[in-house]
Amino acid sequence: MVIYVRTQGAKIIKQGKHLLVKKGDAIYHTLFTYKLRQVVMFGNVEITHRALAQLMQNNIDTVFMSYNGRYLGRLAAPESKNVFLHKRQYMLLDDHDFSLHLARCIVAGKLTNMATLLMRIRRSRKDPVPGQKAEEIQQLMRKLESADNIDSVRGYEGRGAAIYFQGFPRGFINEMGFVRRVRRPPTDPVNSVLSLLYTFLMNRVYAAVRIAGLDPYPGFLHAIDYGRYSLVLDLMEEFRSIIADTLTLSLFNLKILQREDFYTDKTKVDKVSKAGDQEVPDVTKDPIGMISDDETEKEILDLPEQRMVHDSPALTESAGRYPVKLRDEAFKRVIEVFEKKLTTAFYYPPAGRRLTYGDVIIYQAGHYRKVIEGETDVYQPVMLK
Question: In a 10 Å sphere around its CB, with 0-12 CB exposed, 13-18 middle and 19+ buried, how is residue 30 labelled?
Fold first, then answer.
């Protein structure tokens, strides 16, 4: 169970064997430690020493966010004791053939999922443009197979992401001001939601990596850098379209989010980095958001752009633009539907059984570990069907 605490002025305290979320004398939630997998706190939420000690003793990932969803940091379980696994991860960074092969697998999965989602948009909206962009991405996939260095692989990934976001806006029923991917700050409702969902997704992938006993820093597609969770970012790529992008389409097309749910924060302009309780409709009913067409079965402070190469500053920066943010009730709705998405089950062939999206993230981290340890030759990403 993942718990999100966003009530400003709330305090998490320990009482007996349980934790309580309180504000004043009012008790908002009782948290049973044995059920918890992760606690995510937003903004002005306090936690007592005894409560924090209980979370740490039970290896519960505890994440701290700003009020508007910017990742600040975490208190995680102790590092895996398997130093031999970690040593192998770092040794393989110097293995050109292994690194190239794994990076190609990761990008192939991402490109495939982007093309599949664009084809769904074409069929759903009867719009040829997303189909054309999907075909362009498929052409890149054929070139990817012959890429002989990681820089080329990253280049194909970057080009694929650029093409994808030319077709992605055609998936929205109503115009929401989304033209291209803008991260710092997000300047329209769609970008605001994408950034938030990518942050939520990153937290879940990070937790899965730790469950698998892997070191989150050494990755193969994302270059290693000081403080960068490169492995986490690598494993996120296949899930961006499957979870965050499809969910964004569902949120707007099902009118769970509308323009009045957003506001423009003119109090400040975020600094641009030049380094690279209402009932909510069931989003799993939206065919664009499903993993199958079968309707019966259904940098540490911020995430990097959805590409490994940079466009010109004029295209990637939004200096002087004000950030667009979610209002409180809408923010809660996004959290609710994100968790509903991750608890939706579907038949996952590699596991031979039905799994939730959340469980598949954990499964993929374990699969990645098998590749690192040599038990499996090929990393197989999750594919959108």
Answer: exposed
Closest of 89, 65, 292 to residue 200, by C-alpha: 65
Residue 335 falls within a domain, yes or no?
yes
Task: Write the CATH number for 44.
Answer: 3.100.10.20
Helix (H) or strand (E) holding 23: strand 18-23
- The domain boundary, picked from 45, 75, 105, lies at 75
Residue 214 lies in a domain: yes
Q: How many CB atoms lie within 10 A of CB 158?
A: 18
pTM of the model: 0.80
Tens-digit pLDDT profile for residues 84-137: 999 999 999 999 999 999 999 999 999 999 999 999 999 999 999 999 999 999
Q: Which of 143, 311, 315, 310 is nearest to 223 (CA)?
A: 310
At 101, the amino acid letter reads: H
Say if residue 185 is preceded by a cis peptide, omega within 30 of 0. Answer: yes
Cα gap 385→368, rounded to integer Å: 21
| DSSP 8-state secondary structure symbol assigned to residue 334 | H
Total domains present in the chain: 2
- The answer to whether position 157 is within a domain reads no
